[in-house]
Specification:
Residues 1-25 form the signal peptide. It comes from Blastococcus tunisiensis. InterPro entries: ABC_Gly_betaine_transp_sub-bd. One of its GO terms (molecular function) is transmembrane transporter activity. By secondary structure, the protein is α/β, with parallel strands linked by helices. It has 2 domains: 6-133 and 239-295, Periplasmic binding protein-like II (D-Maltodextrin-Binding Protein, domain 2, 3-Layer(aba) Sandwich); 136-229, Osmoprotection protein (prox), domain 2 (D-Maltodextrin-Binding Protein, domain 2, 3-Layer(aba) Sandwich). Helices cover 42% and strands 17% of the residues. It is built from 12 helices and 11 strands. The protein has helices spanning 6-20, 42-57, 71-79, 90-97, 108-120, 142-148, 178-185, 198-207, 248-254, 256-268, 271-282, 288-295; strands at residues 21-22, 34-39, 62-69, 85-89, 124-126, 136-141, 164-167, 191-194, 212-216, 227-229, 242-247. It has a 6-stranded mixed beta sheet. The protein has a 5-stranded mixed beta sheet with strand order 8-7-9-6-10. The longest helix has 16 residues, at 42-57. The radius of gyration is 19 Å and the shape is globular.
């Protein structure tokens, strides 16, 4: 994704949010509700529903805006008072907020401290991180792994010039996707195809139109499709604990109930929960909101 001029970005954000808004009546004043926004992939939409439901249960007004866009759109929206709450992933959020940071801390606590200092000056409060974690993973079919005797990313190096890679459209620009694979592993693929969804990535792997594809480590399809993640043996991916971020002004307006509800959710959420939530939507056919309500025991 290329960066857009600030004025145009603001217009795009407002149009997107107006089109996507769902929840209480559309006439609700933006200052009278807590506006949650999700990224343009399914797991994040599920997570946003989980945290939004906690805030509803605390008796606070909520709207949810799904699929607003990539991090290049949503992160500025949080800082520019277009949305109020974003649920992110610790390592990626820290790298995006501090792209010139010389050495990313290895521990979640270290990354949380850097992210909190960085976004605190931009009017955003970084709340407690959850135990739940989801990293980028790179998958092949089990048949491909057996044929070529590969189980680690570094073992793809001699094969990559003959392979097709599939990932989200922003992958060529993301340091934890293709640029990171090239820099850390020396992986250069013969062809790169943009995948519209993770489901499409699995289908392309099974059809043989790609041989390597990006899938998150909590993707439920890993348990049911003949695909496997290669070990990140050189440690490209940082820790990616789920972490909610809230505009400071909204915390001041709604008080401690908002922070308490979000922090309590993070204290409960595990990686196993995240896998099950993904399974409920990806395989069982529930909507993100239905899966979240079932997780909370209200669906």
């Amino acid at each position: 994704m290329r960066h857009r001029p600030a004025a145009l970005l603001g217009v795009v954000l407002l149009l997107l949010l107006a089109a996507c808004e769902r929840g209480p009546a559309a006439t609700t004043s933006p200052t009278g509700t807590i506006r949650f926004a999700s990224y343009d992939f399914q797991e994040n939409q599920i997570l946003v529903e989980v945290y939004a439901e906690a805030v509803r249960r605390a008796g606070l007004p909520v709207t949810v805006q799904h699929g607003v866009g990539t991090r290049e759109v949503v992160a500025p929206a949080l800082q520019q008072d277009v949305v109020d709450v974003v649920v992110d992933y610790l390592g990626t959020a820290t790298m995006f907020a501090r792209p010139a940071f010389p050495d990313l801390p290895e521990t979640p606590e270290g990354m949380h401290a850097v992210l909190s200092r960085t976004l605190g000056g931009r009017g955003v409060l970084v709340l407690d991180a959850a135990r739940a974690e989801d990293q980028n993973g790179f998958a092949v079919t089990t048949a491909f792994a057996a044929e070529h005797d590969v189980g680690r990313l570094s073992e793809l190096v001699p094969l990559a010039p003959e392979l097709a890679f599939g990932g989200p459209p922003e992958c060529p620009d993301r340091p934890l996707c293709l640029p990171g694979l090239a820099e850390v592993y020396g992986l250069e693929f013969a062809e790169v195809l943009a995948m519209p969804s993770r489901a499409a990535t699995v289908e392309a792997l099974l059809a043989g139109s790609i041989q390597v594809g990006l899938l998150e480590t909590t993707d439920a399809r890993l348990a049911v499709a003949p695909v496997m993640l290669l070990v990140d043996d050189l440690g490209l991916q940082p820790r990616e604990n789920v972490v909610p971020m809230v505009r400071t002004e909204v915390v001041d307006r709604f008080g401690p109930r908002l922070v308490e509800a979000l922090d309590a959710t993070s204290a409960l959420l595990t990686t196993g929960d995240l896998v099950q939530l993904n399974r409920a939507v990806e395989l069982d056919g529930l909507s993100p909101e239905e899966a979240a309500r079932r997780w909370w025991g209200t669906g």
